[in-house]
Amino acid sequence: MNKRFKFLLLGAIVCTSVVVFPQLKPLYLAAYAVLGYSLDLVINLLFISAIAIIFAAFLSPLEALGWWAGWYGDQVDKNLDPGTLAEPLPPETKVFRYVIYLDGIAQAESRYFPDVEQFVDELAARLPDDILIIRGLMPYSPMNRPLTKDRLLSFFWRLAERLQMSTSVGIFGALIGCTINIRNTLVVTVSADQRYGPIYNQGTAQVMYNSLITHGYQPESGIPITLIGYSGGGQIAMGAAPYLRQALDAPIEVISISGVLSGNTNALQLEHLYHLVGDKDFVEREGPVLFPKRWQIFFLSYWNRAKRRGKISVISLGPVGHNGAGGPFDANRFLPDGTTSFLQQTVDIVEGIILDKFPFAQKNPRRKPSNYQRYWSAPFNQPSYYPIQQSVNLENYRAIAPWMGRLILPKPEERRQVKGVFFEVHHAPTEYQHLVGQIVNLRWSDAPSVQAYVRHVTKSVHFSEETEYSISQGYIHPERLNHWQQVDPLESLAGARPHDDVIVKLPEVVAIVERTDRKRGSLFISKEPVQITGRYYALVKILHPLEDGSDCFRVVHFNRQSQQFDGVEDRVRIPQVVADINGVFPSTNRDMEKSPVNETGWYIYGAKDKNGMFVVQAIAPRRLLRLQPDEIIFGKKAALNYLKKESWQVEGQKGKVSSVLLSPKHQEIQAAIEEWQEGDLALLIHVYGGIGGRKREPAAKTPIFFGHFAYGIARVVREPIADELCFDIEYCQVYTHNIDGIIAGTNAWCRFLGDRQWGWLGTRPVSDIIIKLDAVTENYDIQGLKRSPLLTLIYYLEIAMARYRIGDGTGGTYVGPANNCSQDSNQALYGAIKNIENAITANPNLAEWLSNNPEQAQRFEQLVKLGNSINRRLLPFGTARADWQNNIEMLGISIEDNPIEALLRGLLSWRTMLPRLASETIAKRFLLRDASIWVLRTNQVGGYDPDIEPIAPTEIGW
Predict the structure, then answer these.
(1) From the CB of residue 33, how many other CB atoms can be counted at a distance below 10 Å?
(2) Distance (Å, rounded) from C-alpha 568 to C-alpha 443?
(3) Can you list the positions of beta strands (E) in 534-579?
């Protein structure tokens, strides 16, 4: 029987009774009047409630404004509950992560509903002892004041909470209990409001700050913080996170459980937002509708930009509602599998996120072929091709470095124990030869300066939409690191490619902990590992192939005693490398014995294969790197003319190298050369050109080719085989992701240029300008601390390179007008010079220091003039870009974020957008300050390839 029929039957009975029993008519009329009065009462109550809610809405920002204005006192109230730990911290336990739980809108004081209590308790029991959970904060008050204490209406809120907690209170009691939800909902709208929200959110951030400090958090320690916000607590967490991050200098992530999020807060400042949503949660769905900043049409809002950058992960909870029965904390409802309760699922997901083991779905898009994949297919390009245990004739072969090996990325579950990466030892100093072949932990030193660097560049990695698209186009990104939390610079280096094939030397091992029965051995370093190719090197002259078409060659070693190539003859293999996707061979062994540089010899780098044959993986012309110039140019005018008009001559220079010394202040050959002594450090400016000829590269199809820019460092060392001074060059490559698998980082010459498969020596014209100016290359003793502008530059470049490897957490780096290899490298130069200037001028006894250190004072004066001169040229509009002045952590991840701002920033430093112009501009500034400069030029050196020709970078300006 349907409802309509029931009402009709009831009406018929009433009408019949009135007709049959007329004496009942007054009774019916009285009942009808009472019903009318009741209806009026209900309507009036609803009207009054609406007025009360509107009035409360107007007053809802009052507490935040009062806190901001100091109405409640200027001092922080330390007697307010700072929250409690879900489980106590065991003695002598170092905290790994802090977690703060913020409850939903039903919260009136520190205690929670039973289902929430069960969630927090189970999560605490599942997490390790070194992860602290703070509970009991009141997120709906900027002062952490519960509703039930020290308020004018505390008695009412106590009644409301009691009724809310009770299971049988009737309609009236339920309405009173709902007032807590209504009040806190209004507070959530204050947090989301763009006018009052910043004030309120700073207040809640202060509450969380006080709680963290109370429970032992050390600001700037870098210990990660996770905010878990349920329902309205999700918006409170999002609002407070940017301020908390700024106050603590800490990485912060937010886990929103059924959160109603506005999208107004800056989600870009989070490490990540994990948004857990049930399919039946109709309350959460109000967020994308009610808050315009979440609408797709506002594509530049924080929310939409964060989504594109991979900062937001939406995780489905399945058939789960918003709260109560059927909500995410319901232990009595189960998923379709029949065994997992809604509560267990929520705990599993949150635990997996915090412990970095949540199984995110990995995309596997269709990909275009990459050069890296092609190169990897050749066995001689794989580390396993070369046995670890090797023996060589130390008269003819030398180790590239004392410590060498392969970086191995640990599995996610191994990270907490490894605290770095694995290092497969390929070579070690004599006293540690027993470590060769072992796999040890490679970790960062505990020195404060090293840990500060690590904290600065450690980011959680979640790929952006642009990175996912880039992968489909064949670009190599750190896919193994996707969805990893707190990836440090060692992990970003080891995980940069799909395979564990990064071979490095360790420039500075500061501590060694030997292996024990229970623990793996560990090496501690303070500098970024340097990417290299090969394990040993020799100095040889190539005689001829063993037979026509063979890749095995007969060579003769250099004789140190006679200083001639009349040493032992040997056989080496120079394999033909794999061509790139354009059909260009990165190098060729064709007619290498006929090369113009063969007479003075080649440094060959490599290792022996399983048959004992030395395989040449990289080459370097001896004539280029030794300190014996082909030409010396005296005087500033002639030197400037060479830089501008002659240094980039490529016509007729294919296969040749040149080494030219520019000496603006000396007029004698010997004096110019002797200015460079063993142990000297020098600034290096690197630029490469394009690939032309019949197999012209796509980037060089137009008449304009910009090239690539990098800084580096050149050391004057005595090479032991030839017993002569030469340059040991390392490039600081601020290099974006690419199809070749070249990794941003410190690259040795034998890797970035000389590598026969991945290097550019055989295909591109290259200019390396090496600059020695004491004002930049020498140390300044500042209050007992020795600081060098050059080494400060390298430090800043290491920061940029580590950030480039993971795109500041997006997995990829966009190159645009304001941020690219040249712009970001020159920002580092600007910062390095300013850093030393500020350190010296901040000395309270500056006048005394200048008087007591006349030589340093003279150098400092020259440094200031040089810095001003460079700034005037690189910043022609007379002011530094804001991101240069303030060292803002800006990377050109996507031009769509702020295209106009990016273009304007680029225009402020337009000269640094052009690699050749930037290098010539800077070199000119140094020359005018009497710097001594070497210009090393190569033009597609090695074997002969008739299908390519060198293209110089386009000449623009001076």
Answers:
(1) 10
(2) 41
(3) 536-545, 552-557, 569-573
Q: What is the Cα Rg of the chain in Å?
A: 35
Those residues with Cβ within 8 angstroms of residue 233's Cβ, 6 or more apart along the chain or in another chain = 101, 102, 103, 104, 139, 259
Contacts of 663 (CB under 8 A, 6+ apart): 632, 633, 634, 639, 671, 672, 675, 932
The DSSP result for 231-291, as a single string, is THHHHHHHHHHHHHHHHHT--EEEEEES----S-S-GGGSSEEEEEE-TT-TTTTHHHHH-
Contact between 209 and 244 under an 8 Å Cβ cutoff? The reply is: yes
Three-state secondary-structure class, residue 439: strand
**With contact defined as beta carbons under 8 Å apart, do 441 and 514 qualify?**
no
389 CB burial (10 A radius; 0-12, 13-18, 19+): exposed
Per-residue burial over 130-139, b = 16 or more CB atoms within 10 Å of its CB, e = otherwise? ebbbbbbbbb
891: pLDDT strictly greater than 80: no
> How is residue 450 written in tokens?
């090293």
Q: Which position has the token pair 């959110």?
A: 201
Q: How far is CA 224 from CA 219, 271, 343, 713, in A?
A: 11, 9, 25, 35
pLDDT class for 952, splitting at 50, 70, 90? very high
Residue 236: CA atoms inside 13 Å, Cβ hemisphere, count? 32
Q: How far is CA 724 from CA 623, 716, 719, 771, in A?
A: 12, 10, 6, 20
Structure tokens, 174 = 């339920």
Helix (H) or strand (E) holding 353: helix 342-354
pLDDT digits (tens, 9 = 90+) for 201-231: 988 999 999 999 999 999 989 999 999 999 9
Which residues are CB-neighbours of 806 under 8 A, at least 6 positions away?
459, 461, 478, 481, 487, 492
Q: Give kind and range of the element (H or E) at residue 926.
A: helix 915-927
From residue 889, how far is each of 300, 427, 457, 893, 913 by CA, in Å? 19, 37, 10, 11, 19
Task: Name which of 692, 741, 742, 734 is nearest 710 in CA terms.
Answer: 734
Q: What is d(CA 475, CA 113) in angstroms, rounded to the nearest whole number?
A: 50
pLDDT category of residue 880 using cuts at 50, 70 and 90 = very low
Residue 456's nearest CA partner among 250, 238, 283, 314 is 250
**At residue 672, what are phi and psi to the nearest 5 degrees?**
-65, -40
Inter-residue contact 199 to 62 (CB < 8 Å): no
Q: Which element (helix H / strand E) includes 746? A: strand 745-748
> Quick one: CA dihedral 367, 370, 373, 374, positive or negative?
positive
Beta bridge partners of 616: 606
Q: How far is the C-alpha of 919 from the C-alpha of 707, rounded, in Å?
A: 11
pLDDT of residue 890: 47
DSSP conformation letters of 609-620? -TTSPEEEEEEE
Please tell me what DSSP assigns to residue 626.
B
Q: Which amino acid is at 744?
A: A
Convert the pLDDT of each residue in 356-409 to its tens digit. Answer: 988 887 777 788 999 999 999 999 999 999 999 999 999 999 999 999 999 999
DSSP result, 21-65: -GGGHHHHHHHHHHHHHHHHHHHHHHHHHHHHHHHHHHHTTHHHH
CA–CA distance, 303 with 294 (Å, rounded to integer): 6
Q: Between the CA of residue 623 and those of 620, 626, 628, 679, 727, what are the distances in Å?
A: 9, 6, 8, 20, 11
pLDDT of res. 36:
61
